[in-house]
Amino acid sequence: MVLAVLNWRLFASEIAYLIDDAKTELLFVGPEFFDLIAGIRDELKTVKKIIAVSGEHSEWETYISWRDGQSADESGASAGGDDDVVLQMYTSGTTGNPKGVQLTNASLLAFIAPCAREYVGYNDRDVSSVFLPVFHLVGTGLGLATFYAGGKNVVLRDTVPAEILRLIAEQRITVAVFVPALILFLLQTPGIAETDLSSLRLIVYGASPIPVELLRKAKKTFKCRFAQGYGLTESSAAFAYLSPEDHDSDNEQRLRSCGKIVSSAEVRVVDEQDNELPVGEVGEVIVRSPQNMKGYWNLPEETAQTIRGEWLYTGDAGYFDADGYLYIHDRVKDMIISGGENIYPAEIESALFGHPAVADVAVIGVPDDEWGEAVKAIVVKKSGVEVADTEIISFAQERIARFKAPKSVDFVDALPRNPTGKILKRQLREPYWQGRERRVN
Q1: Looking at the predicted structure, is the pLDDT value of residue 243 above 70?
Q2: What percent of the chain has pLDDT over 90?
Q3: Which string of DSSP letters, residue by residue, matches 33-70?
Q4: Mean pLDDT of all residues in 294-310
Q5: Burial annotation 432-441 (CB, 10 A radius, 16+ → b, else e)
Q6: Can you give the pLDDT at residue 421?
Q7: Burial of 384 (C-beta count, 10 Å sphere; 0-12/13-18/19+)
Q8: How much is the mean pLDDT over the chain?
Q9: What distance, in Å, lies between the first and last C-alpha atoms of the chain?
Q10: How far apart are CA 63 and CA 52, in angstroms?
Q11: Nearest of 32, 245, 236 to residue 142 by alpha carbon
Q12: Of 114, 326, 368, 385, which has the maximum CB count within 10 A?
């Protein structure tokens, strides 16, 4: 049995695709999604049974009834071997279709155990936040690490800053996990100065870089220690760690790094010919670790592109300094990270190409003070046709999840392309990133 966790923010058609892609047989649905699933029920090819997690549904068995109807006898099922897949997390793909990342007993435990024992140092007295979505590995992984150490998790259904502050004080949360955009929103929330934050011993952040000035403000407000993790869903979360001691340092440059590589992983920075690059030289970051995924579900070609031999190719461009700290400089792939969400331009471009006024389109990430990066569409209009930027944005919002839709639109006469026809995304992005040290935000 494999647990596949779905992003509830997606459109109904996108959710139907994922349910079928995972070959789901047993589907658990909360009451707020009854209507959504009922609307796509006839499209679901493999689902044999739907369980209403809570509430009542006229056709679906309730969770309590289903649970209590099981035999009290041992089922004969085992936890499985180290190489058995137990969790399938979906991450967006450059082709527009999400990919199922297969995580095994061994890969998950390789992250959870050292995270609990060494890096975060969870103990059975800790109260940890699960304020990030559990369809992201950060939410699930650190929640599991808390359980591994015997601690308590406080789970919040929706990421509401005022409610987060209330729960920190009420539940005496000791370890909180945030993305940088959420830290910014919390600092802007009325009443934070009066909130009792004294229980916090550590805030762990990740999923996107954090501006140094924002980190300074956060340390001053929360008055606890900070740590950063860097990794991918494909690597069962973090394989680089910027420790609390590093955050206490006056070395501002070091705060721009992802930290040092964890003891269970080996990381290299390589060029296009897989030659390892020297200190300070930018190349693709690759990792060899027991945390690495088994592969992408039913996608052998994509798996072969990402896992070559024992090495996982991250698609991120970075470099090491002389002290062994890893810095992320740019992205080899075109992925945009906005508010901790991974967004791939191909899916948005595909949706916008359907607009009758669009002759050509490219989607890029541009700096945004709140979200880290914002989605921008650069559009070539068809000859003799006029269209407003708001119309382009609304068109996208009707076809894909709103968080993926462009926040802004620029119009140009032509898009730069190489001789093979590929859009030169780096050239498009450059004017928006001028004056910035890195091409991530």
Answers
A1: yes
A2: 67
A3: GHHHHHHHGGG-SS--EEEESSS--SSSEEHHHHHHTS
A4: 96
A5: bbeeeeebbb
A6: 57
A7: exposed
A8: 91
A9: 39
A10: 6
A11: 236
A12: 326
Tell me which DSSP letter residue 73 carries: S
Domains of the chain: 3-68 (no CATH), 85-331 (3.40.50.12780), 336-433 (3.30.300.30)
Cα–Cα distance measured from residue 113 to residue 331, given in angstroms and rounded to the nearest whole number? 29
pLDDT score, position 425: 87
Single out the residue of 51, 44, 52, 57 nearest to residue 16, CA to CA.
44
Q: How far apart are CA 208 and CA 150, in angstroms?
A: 29
3-state secondary structure labels for all residues of 165-209 = HHHHHHHCCCEEEECHHHHHHHHCCCCHHHCCCCCCCEEEEECCC
Q: How many CB atoms lie within 10 A of CB 76?
A: 5
- Contacts made by residues 133-136, CB under 8 angstroms, sequence distance 24+: 133/7, 133/159, 134/5, 135/5, 135/6, 135/7, 135/8, 135/89, 135/90, 136/89, 136/207, 136/233, 136/340
Residue 303 pLDDT > 90: yes
pTM (whole model) above 0.85: no
Q: Give the residue from 311, 407, 302, 420 showing the smallest Cα distance to 363.
A: 407
Q: Is the pLDDT of residue 266 over 60?
A: yes
What are residue 238's DSSP bridge partners?
Answer: 231
Tokens of 304: 């072969």
Token pair of 263 as six digits = 């003891």
Helix then strand count (H, E) for the chain reads: 14, 24
**Of 397, 396, 340, which is closest to residue 371 (Cα–Cα)?**
340
Tokens read off for 281: 């030289």
177 falls in which pLDDT band (50, 70, 90)?
very high
Checking phi first, is residue 69 left (phi over 0); if not, alpha (psi -120 to 50) or beta?
Answer: alpha
* Closest C-alpha to 132, from 368, 341, 338, 314: 341
- Write out pLDDT tens, residues 21-59: 999 999 999 999 999 999 999 999 999 999 999 889 999
Separation between Cα atoms, residue 378 and residue 342, nearest integer Å: 19
